[in-house]
Design a protein that fits this description.
Elements: H1 8-11, E1 17-22, H2 28-42, E2 46-51, E3 67-74, H3 82-89, E4 97-109, E5 112-114, H4 121-131, E6 135-145, H5 157-179, H6 194-199, H7 201-215, E7 219-221, H8 230-234, E8 240-243, E9 246-249, H9 258-262, E10 268-270, H10 272-287, H11 291-301, H12 303-329, H13 333-341, H14 353-356
Parallel strand pairs: 1-2, 1-3, 3-4, 4-6
Antiparallel strand pairs: 4-5, 7-10, 8-9
Length: 360
Amino acid sequence: MDTELIPEKERMTKFSRVIVWYFSGTGNARNAAKWIQEISLSSDVQCELHQIGSPGFSQPTSIPDDALIVLISPIHGFNYPHIMLKFIRQLPTGKNRVILINTRAGMLIGKWVTPGLTGIAFYFASLVLAIKGYSISGMLPIDMPSNWVSLHPGLNDRTVHFIHERMQKKIKTYWLNLLSGSRGIRNFPALKEVVQDLLISPIAILYYFIGRFFIAKTFYATTQCDHCGICIKNCPVHAIKEKEGRPYWTFSCESCMRCMGNCPRSAIETAHGFVLVLVIVFNLLLLYPLHSVYGASHVFFGEVITDWIFKPLLFLSLTLAGYRGFHALYRFRWFQSIAEKTSLTMYRFWGKKYRALRNL
């Protein structure tokens, strides 16, 4: 971007330095960070980027007083992922202004980019930062191409490019207004969605304490894996281990899709068949026989504890045992065939998942 194209009024700013910390699995948050850097530099504002979870990354112990802080992360389960929340909790105390940005799952209907959902991400992060002394000066949701191809078919080239262009313009408008000294409610477009965000807060809490651990156990490496170790080396939370000569996903997995997007052999899949078996076993072989036990627990502990804590923990235990069994059985050809034929990500109609993760 040429500085000459930016009016003098827009190049005026109340700060001279921007520090962006971002977490990115497939590249959406990274792209947003780079767009902000380009606009800032074109406005003669120093802007540095730091990728959370990258090799050699270290938690900051001090932050310059004159810096505007920008935190960018995708939304996982209607909240910031654990790695981003941990980063925020470990920030030193400070008085800096902070802009919170998230990248959400955007889709395309005609020429309308469907909005994702932020959930409690902004509000919980704001609370922690405020306790540390920071001033929240903006909240911006960005609807980037949804890359959760474990859940839905990958987006095509046209959709990805269209959403990128639309969101880049959105960030440019927002950031130029901010650089010109904008303050107040116009810096908080996320507040328009506060009602729906609060309504889905129970799901966000359940995902953080239960759901994310279940999803971590849905990835596996097929026979196409050549043991290059790229997925293990590049995992931002070191969640992938080598077990019995193959990648094994632990509960630390953030489901950020970086492993799937980086695999040179396209060997990482989602075990949809395994998930279906877990659900059937849980409901028919565990819940039904233990119906009387659950009835008693409703009486003694109440419906909330039974349905929102006990049952999810039981399902999570079944998931761990089942995943270990899945990993052990995968050495047999007959099981490999079943697993791969029941993985939706193996099929062409799913939209060539590795090409869809083009934001890397």
